[in-house]
Write a structure and sequence with these properties.
Elements lengths: L5 H14 L34 E2 L19 H13 L1 H21 L5 E12 L15 E13 L6 H67 L5 H35 L18 E2 L9 H4 L1 H22 L4 E12 L11 E10 L7 H67 L5 H36 L12
Parallel strand pairs: 1-4
Antiparallel strand pairs: 2-3, 3-5, 5-6
Helix pairs in contact: 2-4, 3-4, 4-5, 4-7, 4-9, 5-9, 7-8, 8-9
Amino acid sequence: MRHVTPLGLTATALALLVAGCTVGPNYHRPDAVPQAPEWKENAVPPPNPPDGTWKQAEPSDAVLRGKWWEIYGDPQLNGLEDKVAVSNQTLKAATEQYFAAREQVQIARSQFFPTLSAGPSISRTRESHNQTNTLPGVTKYQYNEFSVAGQAQWQPDFWGQIRRTVEQARASAQASAAQLANVELSVRAELATDYFEMRGLDAQKELLDNTVASYEEYLKLTQVRFKGGVATESDVALAQTQLEQTRAQDIDVGVARSQYEHAIATLVGVSASSFSLPAMPLGQQIPQIPVGLPSQLLERRPDIAAAERQADAANAQIGIAIAAYYPNISLGGSGGFASGQPGTWVQGPSEMWSLGGSAIELLFDAGRRHAVTQQARDSYEQQVANYRQSVLNAFQEVEDNLAALRILDQESVVQTRAVAAAQRSLSISTSRYKGGVTTYLEVLTAQTTQLTNERTQEDIETRQYAASVQLILALGGGWDTSQLPKM
């Protein structure tokens, strides 16, 4: 049989004391809502329409990756998105918040180790001659004291309170990292949406500019016919009214266009007064977004990851609360040198030291610990409910935008036919007017119908771009939980 020395027994006991136990429930990821094997709105990718509205997604794998905005193939959008990480102040604030949460992990870990302090002390004291504790024969009431001492305090993590605190801080920091990713994703999606909305208005402006030019020609036509006696003054007035009304619409587009431009300036961290983007109507094809499988969504949404990590932090808080039921054990010691004369300050006889420990158990607190523990359990259940709700919201957002893209795609095909029909109607009405068969009111009605349908067509395209960006946002923008810091 192997002989065990007293020193070995002491070391073993100390190791057991340090290891202790960890009270409170261990964390298990909450069950999420049931998931379908396929997206309801995207069981089969939408067919490519005859006019080629959609193009094959790039990358063409199952999920988004990296710089998702590059799938639109717009260099100007790419340049604006590159500025977000550098200059957006909302993103900077979220970054600093994450850094603060990360430092909290180190603060929590520091409690595993003892605190050490040391320093010299010099004092001169004069005691009262008339104090009651004066010893007989003592005549020295003034004296110097020179000391240099160090202290060590340590609270072993016997019940796992510190371990739970570190666990909570780590989960909170990871939640903050996920929230940072969510802020960045939201800011980039907002930028892309504002950019496409602005480009949609540029397309509206181009359409209205061309329409104004066309209506100017119609006005000249009515004026010529009026001078020739084959048209009435009413025709000229109607053409003039139609022209000026369209000019007003053309000017009005500039209000919303300026607001989107200013919003983009704010998102890229530039003063709106010094920022401008040249007009450039939408022209590129809308990419088909790779959506992957519903089962992947829980790992791809930073807001879901943040909610799950907050549930972990809340679970750790239960253990912290339960640890308060156990004795508070602490160890301490001090040592150094003290003397009344500088010459004997640091000598063997001047040595001093002390060691000690304490264990304090709270016997009565009027139910405070019970209430704190129950509060922690309630907070955990709240975070679990928030997590499950975030999952439900995520699935809804994906399905909403898949439905929007599918329906808008169908609407675009129908609206293209409506525009073509309106153009034919205007052409027929114009020929009838020139031939003297009808009045200008018929032409005006055809003009209004054509312009309304063309503007609707431009609006549908803009909505398709916005819905595609919102779908990317709902899918997590290529982020996944592997990007969470390990700590």
